[in-house]
């Protein structure tokens, strides 16, 4: 009888010890979210904003103060190069017209640093004082300027034509980012006024910087022009647009999420890599910051699992892993 009592007692003690040990082990096991490292294609980019505008706009000027005899077009009409726009009668003498043209061309050239040919101010004359203004390019008529008295002022455009060449975006790029941008780089163009994401290409970069006032104060920017490929009816001149210019693309880059990388006091970086069921502190070297994390050059390999919440876990600690899927692509 005494043996049976001892056996029962030992059995109960063993069961209790197992339960206590299980609870202790459970209390020492931490839930950990891990991500499997894989090679991704990553892009570096510069994002900036600006205005949509027409590629080319030409204005037709009267050769001198003139009276309007007949207007052949109105706003919204499409014209071809050489089409008649307006018949006018010059009200100034030939000598006065010549002086006006020379004076205005000199002033405009000095202001714009560009020589202005007289052909921009006049077209073929039909009679001594009667002339016909014709279209210098093919495109859409966007403005017709005639005074209430039916006259044209010298030095002011009579008709403005937007060419058929399409649309572009004129962007302001901060001086700290302009060194990354080159002519020919691809771009993605979006805006609040249109829902299509258009593609484009950097066409030109200004040779001079300028100061502008922004919400954060004065900043130095450089103008960059990006073309708009196959613009639809939803994107219009004057709209605000945002362009993401792709400055570089790299294949097979290992990405460690920002949440998984930590730094020591001396600046060296590390991750907690999952080995078996334990977290192992592993030094890493990073190069480049992308949308989904750091580019890692050493310390981890493709297929390794790293812990996303390293601050809550100690080196060597036993963990229960919950695998999180990594992103397929990464962009700056």
Automatic annotation (TrEMBL):
Matches recorded under InterPro entries: UPF0194_transport (IPR050465)
Gene3D superfamilies the UniProt entry points to: 2.40.30.170, 2.40.420.20, 2.40.50.100
Name used for this protein in its record: HlyD family efflux transporter periplasmic adaptor subunit
Alphabetic keyword roster: Coiled coil
Organism name: Anaeromassilibacillus senegalensis
Lineage start: Bacteria, Bacillati, Bacillota, Clostridia, Eubacteriales
Main location: other
Annotated compartments: Cell envelope
């Amino acid at each position: 009888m005494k043996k049976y009592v001892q056996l029962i007692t030992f059995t109960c003690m063993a069961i209790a010890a197992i339960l206590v040990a299980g609870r202790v082990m459970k209390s020492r096991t931490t839930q950990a979210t891990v991500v499997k490292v894989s090679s991704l294609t990553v892009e570096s980019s510069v994002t900036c904003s600006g205005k949509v505008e027409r590629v080319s706009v030409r204005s037709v000027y009267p050769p001198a103060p003139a009276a309007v005899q007949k207007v052949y077009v109105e706003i919204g009409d499409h014209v071809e190069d050489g089409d008649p726009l307006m018949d006018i009668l010059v009200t100034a003498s030939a000598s006065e017209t010549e002086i006006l043209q020379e004076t205005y061309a000199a002033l405009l050239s000095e202001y714009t640093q560009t020589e202005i040919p007289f052909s921009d101010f006049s077209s073929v004359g039909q009679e001594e004082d009667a002339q016909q203004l014709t279209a210098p390019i093919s495109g859409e008529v966007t403005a017709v300027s005639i005074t209430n008295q039916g006259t044209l002022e010298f030095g002011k455009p009579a008709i403005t034509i937007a060419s058929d060449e399409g649309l572009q975006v004129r962007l302001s790029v901060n001086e700290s980012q302009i060194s990354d941008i080159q002519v020919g780089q691809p771009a993605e163009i979006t805006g609040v006024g249109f829902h299509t994401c258009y593609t484009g290409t950097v066409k030109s970069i200004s040779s001079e910087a300028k100061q502008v006032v922004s919400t954060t104060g004065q900043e130095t920017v450089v103008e960059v022009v990006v073309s708009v490929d196959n613009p639809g009816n939803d994107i219009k001149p004057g709209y605000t647009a945002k362009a993401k210019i792709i400055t570089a693309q790299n294949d097979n880059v290992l990405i460690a999420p920002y949440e998984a990388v930590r730094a020591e006091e001396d600046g060296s970086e590390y991750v907690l890599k999952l080995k078996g069921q334990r977290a192992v502190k592993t030094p890493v070297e990073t190069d480049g910051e992308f949308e989904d994390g750091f580019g890692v050059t050493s310390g981890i390999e493709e297929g390794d699992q790293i812990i996303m919440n390293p601050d809550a876990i100690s080196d060597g600690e036993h963990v229960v892993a919950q695998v999180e899927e990594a992103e397929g692509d990464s962009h700056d």
